[in-house]
Every structure is written in C-alpha cells, then in structure tokens.
Amino acid sequence: NMALNTLPAGAFADDAISSDKINLANTFAFTGTVTGIQSDFELLNTTTISSAVGDVSWGSSYVTDTHKIYILYFKNIMLNANDNIGVRIGADGVTTSSSYQKGGFADSMESTSYGGVSGSGDSGFHFGGHHENTAGGEPFSGQVTFYNMRDARNKHMIMQDVRDGVNSHRFDVKGCILNTTSVFNTIQVYTIGSNSMDNGQLSLYGLRT
Hints:
Elements: E1 41-49, E2 55-58, E3 69-79, E4 85-91, E5 94-95, E6 100-108, E7 116-122, E8 125-126, E9 140-147, E10 155-164, E11 169-178, E12 186-191, E13 197-207
Antiparallel strand pairs: 1-13, 2-12, 3-9, 3-13, 4-5, 4-8, 4-12, 6-7, 6-11, 9-10, 10-11
C-alpha cells in the first residue's frame, strides 16, 4: 500500500476532526502561523529609544479593561547625564504629579547593608535618587508592575531594577501607593530632572487575570 502523505482538499468537513480524534500529547511541528490562541500574558507595545526623549507614555489604546495587571519592562535605558527616571499614572493623558507614597530599599553592591527608602508626597514613583543619582551613559534595567489601574481602588506599584549609581552599583526594590479611587488609563515613564533618556527599550505587557 502506498502511504498517504497529503489529504486532498475537501476530504473532511470543517467540523469533522475534533480534539478526541487527535493525540494532543504528540509534538506538532508547525511551519505556518498559529492564530486565535489567547494568552493571559500579552505584549501590548514595545518602544525603542534611539534619540533623546524626556518621557514615554501609553494611553487608552493599551490600558483597558481587558487586562487587570500591567507590567513594564525597561532594558538598557541610558540617560544622557546623571539623573533618574520614574513613572506617573493618570487618566486620558493627564498624569497625577503628587501624593505618591513609597517605601523600599536601595542596596549598594559595594556594601552589605541596605539603605532604606521612604516618602509620602513625591511627584511620581521615582526609581533612583534616594541615596544617589543614576549615572549618565550607563545602561540600567528592571521592571515595574501596576495594579488596580482600571479599578476604583488605590493604585499599587512595585518595581525592581539594577543600575549604576554615580558612585556605586545599585539594586533597588520599592513599592508605591497612590491613594485615589479614580479609574486610570495612562502610564508615563519620565526623567525626573532636566535630562533625557537617549537609548534603551520599554515593553508594556498586560495580564488578563
């Protein structure tokens, strides 16, 4: 008997093959594009910085009711001079610039002790500058997670990063609360001082559950 390698078009009705007719434990080598598979963790946007900018924002096209949690990854961000970055959140392109409450640690890799971080009235959730500024021209990377953006609850943010300070290498872990029950749809990364980001990549992900 000759092996049948290809089925002719129309050999099966559209609904003739169901999951109980296929061994789903097998490995299938797909060479085309598989569509229609929903992922709970979804890449929403990647922005590559290649020239000087003071801020990068994501609005209502990305921050929607579809996702419950948002995670922003920043990779090899570089400042054109000593400065720091932070995030602000808000609604319809207008960000809140007061009353961010933070706590955490800013550890120097050249020391075995942690430096505490606290504050109740910041103009944003700042990632550096509590013990020393971030060095210009040196890449730093990390992530920040946003909770309750689309809920009428206080907004929670948690970040971690690795960066070069002006005088030491730093590992930062911080949390932030913004006491507001407003429903938000805007996330902004910005430089705290007057300098710019001139290199790096920012990727915003959404988590459905």
